[in-house]
């Protein structure tokens, strides 16, 4: 790129940036790009869907995202494509420091995201509302989730809380490289809200890679395994559940309380967090629903 | 860089050699047995051996027995097999390539295996093939594919097997496969590529005997071939021509060495993932201890590799309990500095 | 000039009566680069032959062809009338040994271990070297003046010491432990490539004396590739002169080593005379042509 061209591009981006600030001041951003699936979903939930002009590679919810251009994801954001969409708000992961800096230099506002517990998710949705000029809608969505969670808690609250192993990753067809929720993060919060007692609640981490010995020793009364792959056939599901039979001394295995929950709502803390929590609660306490 | 070993004290009488071979084999074998017997007794959970072997309790209800027989014993056995295989393959390939820095992974076997595993994990291919998990099968197939390509390249150009081409083809294939691996990972979603990355760090938590039993025959075949190799490997140290004029059928030896070492590496990687460092540290450590004679080095490396990996795996499953530490990280962290210390001490 | 070379190859026939090792119309090329063309060499049992020629004339290649290390592109090499291509390496190794110009070890062995490697063709698959083999190895060390190096690391030896240890290892190939496994009367063949290149004067003399003794007292057939005309003149009964992929002259040393042939082979004017004291032919190069 020649110097002149570069200068011209810089001028244009500055103007666009200025324009977007002006537009934002008037009524919130009108061209939003999000590479974070959970927040894309949140944008649609708070009514900002029509303003979303670019989404991440792995966004699949709601179905409308299919019509939006893809701009990469956590590891491979396509900055050129993002610039070309002339966004006035870009939602990135907090760890994408280089990209955040690039956008900031170009004067494009950035909303950076870091996931945490359930409370953090609700607060992120409300912040997003403020940034997009839809604070009321966001407050409504957040309140709806809280209501859902309260409902779940009410249904399962006085029931005995089974000791649960919440698995979210495992080498297919075997019991190797098992990843489970530790004592912090939205998975742990969802599990506790759904009336389960996390067997690894005392491990102060979001994720724990477990040995089979740790599982045998922990002896969970129920095992909930989350997988985002919602196209898994029933046969495969049965086979994946059967893999656990090897650990027959684990009460969850002996009492056939190993459940597989499919869908990305379980691993993306967004507006469907309440639904996901309810699904976990249903798996743990079917009689309560 | 050339890694030199201290000279062996050569036998002074014929009886010395026989005694040395027996002593070394028995000594190192004892170490392996010790490691395999002790490992299942060590772990974050205290188990009662009396309860482990108490047949009055049904196995399905006997937690101690399950910890012993599912969580610990298969890991120790898998560790012993993988460690022995990688260390022995390292010895054989270093002698074959006449390169002390060669490892079982130099010739592309592990990259092929990783690519195979990676494809299954990231593309979400069928998870089991006739009841056997697909990941080890795919990784073994990937290893075989890499071996076939490297072997074909090394034999294509001229009569015989060119160890130079072997080395270059292996190194090139390693980078090519790594690039494909990165590409596949790039296209895959985050969770899956993370699983794939984790596979590369090695894991011996097989939690059943099936994978061990399926790897065993392949390793058995390779070790039968290994048993015939040591003297020829000694002579190969003089170079292909030096070996040939002393009566070695060099091409046949190279073929057997390459194919058996690749087979055993493929089987080991399918069983435990590409666990690094064992294939280079153990052979050198053994050479420092017993000299360069492959009749001593090969069996001693197999035994020491087994004992070392079993010990590393005990650390992998206890240090951060209940978390698992990748065993490949431990072999590298223990092995690297230890090896450097040995090098410095003997300079 | 030798007139014969213009009309085709000169046969290196030295004694047709009892050919032990013979190259018959042998050609060899590395890829498209021809190294030897239509070469005939016949070495009788008990021969002591020097192979001379400028750099790149194919001396080492001829040596490797005679040792069966290379397969000729055309023609054949026979040992005792049998094509070496059809003989297994062990059979050849018991009759024929090679001392290369240089030996680099991939791993470090002791001197004794290196010499014991020469015993390989006499051992069964899993047989260890026995007392007889150790005895043979020690005799060869003594014969080459390296007995006191027995326990040294091969890598720490000087070039000359290495050369002599490798010679001892080669000689160890010839000793049978039983009289039944070989024809003990059959002449052994020792091929040496530049044996004096890394030796000082004293060891050059000693090596020449040793090779002469092996030839005279043990009936060993010795073939030496060398650049050192005076070494060859003092040691060898017959010479083969190579130039440009062909044999330029061959025959008894006195007949072959003349100013004319030296000029034809090396493009160098030289004086050849019998030395007053040693009574051996002495070559003094005078000028490059």
Strand content of chain B is under 5%
The CATH homologous superfamily of chain B corresponds to ABC transporter involved in vitamin B12 uptake, BtuC
Q: Helix count of chain C?
A: 10
- Uncertain segments of chain C of ≥5 residues (pLDDT<50)? 1-9
The rough form of chain B would be described as: globular
CATH class of the largest domain in chain C: Alpha Beta
Number of folding domains of chain C? 2
Q: Can you give the mean pLDDT of chain C? A: 87
* CATH architecture descriptor of chain B: Orthogonal Bundle
Name the chain pair with the biggest interface and residue counts per chain: B-C, 41 and 50 residues
What Rg of chain B is obtained from the alpha carbons, in whole angstroms? 21 Å
Number of helices in the DSSP assignment of chain B: 14
Q: What is the CATH superfamily classification of the largest domain in chain C?
A: P-loop containing nucleotide triphosphate hydrolases
| Estimated structural class of chain B | mainly alpha
Mean pLDDT level of chain B? 87
From N to C, what is the helix and strand string of chain C?
Answer: HEEEEHEEHEHHHEHEHEEHHEE
Description:
- The complex is a heterotrimer of chains A (289), B (347) and C (289).
- Chain A is α/β, with parallel strands linked by helices.
- Chain A has two domains: 3-114, Rossmann fold (3-Layer(aba) Sandwich); 160-288, 3-Layer(aba) Sandwich (Rossmann fold).
- Chain A is built from eleven helices and ten strands.
- In chain A, a hairpin with an 8-residue loop joins strand 5 and strand 6 (178-181).
- In chain A, helix 5 (118-131) packs across helix 7.
- Mean pLDDT of chain A is 88; it is low at 16-26.
- The radius of gyration of chain B is 21 Å and the shape is globular.
- Chain B has one domain (14-345): ABC transporter involved in vitamin B12 uptake, BtuC.
- Chain C folds into two domains: 1-80 and 187-200 and 209-250, Rossmann fold (3-Layer(aba) Sandwich), CATH 3.40.50; 88-185, Rossmann fold (3-Layer(aba) Sandwich).
- Helices cover 31% and strands 28% of the residues of chain C.
- Chain C has a six-stranded mixed beta sheet, sandwiched between helices.
- Chains in contact: A-B, B-C.
- The interface between A and B is large, with 40 and 42 residues.
